[in-house]
Amino acid sequence: MFEEQYGDDDAPLSPFSGAFKFYYDHDYLETGGGGGLQPVEEVFRDGSYIETYRDAVIEAAHAKGLTHAGGAALLYDHVYLVGKTKVRQALGYTFLGVFDFKRG
Q: pTM of this prediction?
């Protein structure tokens, strides 16, 4: 999913990048979960700065009808232009939104 490929400049950085149609800096990506379906409250328990946006991301998940998830991809310092890419779901992931966070 997040395995990066190099050498073909026309290919996406990773399957995730290709599915969501954008490039990202892997230094700002964190992934979590992967141990089967869990309540979203558990999936978003850990992560850098999570305490500054956890309530907002859980509220966004619930607003989309998501109560459980198998994992999460957290991308910091990136603006995902869903209006440009038109991709809201791919490879089992759902775009929840862009959230403000504070470095602590």
A: 0.82
